[in-house]
Amino acid sequence: MAVNTGHPMSGADVPAGRVVLGREAAVATVLLEHPGRLNAITIAMWRALENAFRGFSADASLRCVVVRGAGGQFAAGADIREFPQARADIEGVTAYHRDVIAPALDAVGACMHPVVAAIEGVCVGGGLEIASRCDLRIAARGARFGAPINRLGFPMAPDEMRGLLDLAGHAATLEILLEGRVFDADEAMAKGLLTRVVDDEAFDEALQGAVARIVAGAPLAARLNKRIAVQLRRAEPASFSDAQWREFFSYAHNGDHRRGIQAFLDGQDPVFTGD
């Protein structure tokens, strides 16, 4: 399904970008597509991304979402050609970052299903911010990363910096922002920004393998793992309420839990149904 997200600016000829949604069985795909612009993300694309992920979180039949860019490039950040109009004053800057980008990133991060960023080519600025909100980030060795916004004269907004801080920590995040340097996938892996780096020719196979393993797992367990990981970043288990503990261990009555145990005891591969 293609979501046409062209957002021409008044008096300017801005080529349309779009977010293309697809689905195969229990796997949804999100394709960032902006020809000739290294998939630079327009305002309308940010909004389409938010809407897509809100919809995914309402669809319990999904088990995995894959985000990637068209043409062998992930995304070259926000479309700067929109800035003179969209970010012309403090009100515009505030609205752009708090009402457009932040909700889109929050929707990606809050998706109840596992989200995999499939990274090839350039992944900088807003592209890196999107990838940082995914659960897994698998990159081709030829990919390039960074946030060279110091050369544009503005800092990274707090809602956008949060994902980098969670992955790379204080020191590496400041290095990325203060130097504005573009670096390779091996360095991104060393900084904690990536889950896995694979040779370019093995990229598709590695991606398909990761998705297949996610889909083969119990979906409720995956969702609970995501939720608990977020909670543990904010509080120690000792601070959990009895209701929170009971909600977590409610999977004991889940059919997939029983199926997984029985399949192990029978020496078979489990087949999970999501109930």
Keywords:
275 residues, alpha/beta, 7-stranded mixed β-sheet, 10 helices
Topology diagram in text:
Elements: E1 2-4, E2 18-24, E3 27-33, H1 43-57, E4 64-69, H2 83-86, H3 90-110, E5 115-119, E6 122-124, H4 126-132, E7 136-140, E8 144-146, H5 158-179, E9 183-184, H6 185-190, E10 196-198, H7 203-216, H8 219-234, H9 242-248, H10 255-266
Parallel strand pairs: 3-4, 4-5, 5-7, 6-8, 7-10
Antiparallel strand pairs: 1-2, 2-3, 8-9
Give an overview of the whole structure.
The chain is of the alpha/beta class and 275 residues long. The protein contains 10 helices and 10 strands. It has helices at 43-57, 83-86, 90-110, 126-132, 158-179, 185-190, 203-216, 219-234, 242-248, 255-266; strands spanning 2-4, 18-24, 27-33, 64-69, 115-119, 122-124, 136-140, 144-146, 183-184, 196-198. A 7-stranded mixed β-sheet has the order 1-2-3-4-5-7-10, with helices on both faces. Strands 6-8-9 form a 3-stranded mixed β-sheet. Helix 1 (43-57) links the parallel strand 3 and strand 4 (64-69). Helix 4 packs across helix 5. It is globular, with a radius of gyration of 20 Å. The two termini are 28 Å apart. Residues 1-14 have low confidence and may be disordered.
Summarize the structure.
With 275 residues, this protein is an alpha/beta fold. 45% of the residues lie in helices and 16% in strands.
